[in-house]
Amino acid sequence: MGTTQLESVPEPKYWHLKTVLSEALDSEFSVGEILPNERDLAARFGVARATLRQALEQLELEGRLQRRRGVGTTVAPPRMGVAVGTDQDAWPGAPDDAWQSVDCALAAPPAAVATALETGADEPVHIVRRSRVSHGQPVAAELLYIPASSVPDLTAIDAPSGAARARAVLRELQRLELEGQDRAVELGSARADDAKELDRLPGAPVLVVTTRFLAEGRTAALSVATYRADTCRLTFGDTGGVEIHHGPERQAS
Amino acid sequence: MGTTQLESVPEPKYWHLKTVLSEALDSEFSVGEILPNERDLAARFGVARATLRQALEQLELEGRLQRRRGVGTTVAPPRMGVAVGTDQDAWPGAPDDAWQSVDCALAAPPAAVATALETGADEPVHIVRRSRVSHGQPVAAELLYIPASSVPDLTAIDAPSGAARARAVLRELQRLELEGQDRAVELGSARADDAKELDRLPGAPVLVVTTRFLAEGRTAALSVATYRADTCRLTFGDTGGVEIHHGPERQAS
DNA sequence: TAGTGGTCTAGACCACTGA
DNA sequence: CAGTGGTCTAGACCACTAG
User: Fold this and answer.
1) Is A37 a member of any domain?
2) In the structure, how far is the CA atom of residue A133 from the C1' atom of nucleotide C3, in angstroms?
3) What b/e sequence results for B114-150 when a residue is b if at least 16 CB atoms lie within 10 Å of its CB, and e otherwise?
4) How far is CA B133 from CA B39, B65, B102, in A?
5) A35: which of A73, A170, A207, B170 fits an S-S bond (Cβ 3.0–4.6 Å)?
6) Which residues in chain B are closer than 8 Å to A80, comparing Cβ atoms?
7) Chain A residues with CB inside 8 Å of B58's CB?
8) A158-205 per-position pLDDT tens digit
């Protein structure tokens, strides 16, 4: 006889825990509410703290929880929609773009970037740092690589450095006619500097959006933007994007 | 005197480990090559296995490594670009679309989906399962929700169920005029069924692409596609997307 | 059956936050 | 300062794969 092996796959504890916690989050907690600490939770569920943490990590990855060292674990609000695909035919730095220039430097790009720019590894590029804030919270950090040849009329006198310099570079960029752009999204982990700017720990999961701006038949600028994966839902297209939420989440009073 | 506190931040071991391994991957390993097993690696670096694993997990998240239980850890090839934004004005199931229908069911949608469809929670919808293969490897699993009202002329005789039924539903859908679509991308973790189809463990990181198809002034269909985050780079736009790779990766002989 | 990665434990100490 | 999450250890056993 065929031994039916009913449920021969023992579900891992952390997976089951995650399910239980997820349901509790929907039914018994409000956004912003603080969960019991990890040691208490682990004891309550009769598992080691490491196991409990494995479940919490997954829930944080899914944007359901927010954990902060020294503070505690709180129920996260639904992810915010962040528009990425709008201004389909606008340069970075165009009016009403969501980014804020931080500073600017002229340096040789990383080898990988030089390749994508199809420029010599030694040719210096302007590296503009920008940051993006949404709902009062930093959501993304960007590095914009602009070959010097893309902004030939830029004068050194325009501004020596800093945010003013960055704006000058972007202003010069507007003079080119944008012929198109293409974009890629992939998963990454935050470098130390990005993590700091995003108010996360190094290694935090981020969505890396790479955009290539085409003008005069070549790549005139390259943007590498890292978005917080835990709090952001990237939206493309005109109207703002779909929202699929998890269940009945109430708002904290 | 101001105690300068040079390097007062002790870099976590796993972070340093990750950096070392990442450089070794660039310089000393070829794509497809098998790394030493975790116990040996941990011993070699003088850390506990759990710490070593923390580093490996990050590298896998970044698409640098691929680990398979019972087999070992191998150097992953660069992520493959997967076009998502093409056929900007085409219905799912249009000719030459990258998806393959698997089956189809008529059922009440999850509450969250019903909300997004702006349809009653009780109104049944066609749920089409599709899968997407690229370079001989499964890269995405999709659930397509199509309200029965979007395909009014569908006859029960067309096909009872299965892939043929799915194709019949999609064929009916083509009759509507597509007025637009909007799309969102966010990080998620694979449900058990998706994980199986993607040949990954449950909980594996995925990029969830939610697309809403608009016709007749309402949402005529909703697609929720989950892409393997470790192997895929989602590309939007016309030309195929930018590739930023990590360093000199050689090909295994 | 041997060897791999996946899960789990019960501790310890550290870095950070806020009162 | 007490309490939080973050890191780390040294084990153990399990599930899976392939020879």
Assistant:
1) yes
2) 50
3) bebbebeeeeebbbbbbbbebeeeebbbbbbbbbeeb
4) 34, 20, 12
5) A73
6) none
7) 189, 203
8) 666 788 899 999 999 999 999 888 899 999 999 999 999 999 999 999
Cβ-Cβ contacts under 8 Å between A and B: the total is 147
Report yes or no on whether pTM surpasses 0.85. Answer: yes
The number of domains in chain A is 2
- Check whether residue B9 has its CB closer than 7 Å to nucleic acid strand D: no
Q: A157 and A93, same structural domain? A: yes
Q: How far is the CA of A187 from the C1' of D5 (A)?
A: 24
Examine the fold and report which residue of A24, A41, A75 is the final residue of a domain before the chain moves on: A75
The string of pLDDT tens digits covering residues B101-133 is: 999 999 999 988 998 888 877 888 999 999 999
The domain boundary, picked from B42, B58, B75, lies at: B75
Same domain, B98 and B47: no
Q: Looking at per-residue confidence, does A95 or B154 come out higher?
A: A95
CATH number of the domain enclosing B55: 1.10.10.10
Q: What is the torsion angle, in degrees rounded to the nearest 10, for the CA atoms of residue B122, residue B123, residue B124 and residue B129?
A: -100
d(CA A132, CA A98): 6
Please give the structure tokens belonging to residue A30.
């409000």
A103 touches strand D (CB under 7 A): no
Residues B18 and B124 reside in one and the same domain = no
